[in-house]
Design brief:
Blueprint: E1 4-8, H1 18-28, E2 32-36, E3 41-43, E4 46-54, H2 59-68, E5 75-79, H3 83-91, E6 97-99, H4 111-120, E7 123-127, H5 129-133, H6 136-156, E8 160-163, H7 175-182, H8 189-196, H9 198-203
Parallel strand pairs: 1-2, 2-4, 4-5, 5-6, 6-7, 7-8
Antiparallel strand pairs: 3-4
Helix pairs in contact: 3-4
């Protein structure tokens, strides 16, 4: 099973170098990581995929951020927001992953956007760091939002990715840890395996996607 941590933050965004995070990923049993701000490479058998996270309060700010991106931004991820922003993000061809859904309003991602994400092959990331470090209310809210996403995903089949959101090697998690944490909101082991493959599918999208009613 190929296992990818879909978002880590190496130095200078975090405390650990990209090489140290790649080494830790290999020791934990991961095959690859998406490292924000890093360039793609392979270190000790672990593939490092470059990534960029963009943020904006509205469509205009996101588009401005997209224009400022360098020539090789890697996997482009965007921080989710309200319904209007999420709908706009799904229409932006360069945005491949939505992050931070757990922190958005409950109506910010519904069956309409789930279908759109499936059709456009935009993934939704499940950042497990909030389940580890979040306080009671934040953690419970994230669990409920992730459970809602799992139900939508089972119906519409949009891509999921799994990330530790780690800013240090101490925050990185093994595949076994991620499976256990995902079980808290109803994502079973087979679906976790599918989410681990989410980055590979984002990088090599299929020609068509079947939406199950």
């Amino acid at each position: 099973m190929r296992c990818t941590d879909a978002c880590v933050y190496p130095f200078p965004l975090g405390d650990s170098s990209v090489r140290r995070m790649a080494q830790e990923a290999g020791e934990l049993g991961l095959d690859s990581i998406v490292a924000v701000g890093a360039r793609g490479c392979i270190f000790r058998g672990v593939e490092v995929v470059g990534g960029t996270v963009i943020q904006g309060r509205d469509q205009g700010e996101v588009q401005a951020a997209l224009r400022r991106m360098g020539k090789d931004p890697g996997v482009v991820m965007a921080t989710a927001g309200d319904y209007a922003l999420n709908r706009a993000l799904l229409h932006m061809g360069r945005v491949r992953i939505l992050r931070g859904i757990h922190a958005t309003p409950g109506n910010s991602f519904d069956h309409i956007l789930a279908r759109m994400a499936a059709e456009r092959q935009v993934a939704v990331d499940l950042d497990i760091s909030v389940l580890v470090s979040g306080r009671d209310y934040t953690r419970q809210r994230a669990l409920q939002r992730y459970a809602d996403l799992v139900r939508l995903q089972s119906r519409f089949g949009f891509l999921l990715t799994l990330s530790s959101g780690a800013r240090s090697i101490l925050g990185m998690k093994s595949p076994r840890d991620m499976v256990a944490l995902c079980g808290l909101f109803g994502l079973d082991e087979d679906d976790v395996e599918g989410a681990f493959l989410g980055i590979a599918k984002v990088l090599r999208p299929e020609k068509s996607v079947e939406v199950v009613e």
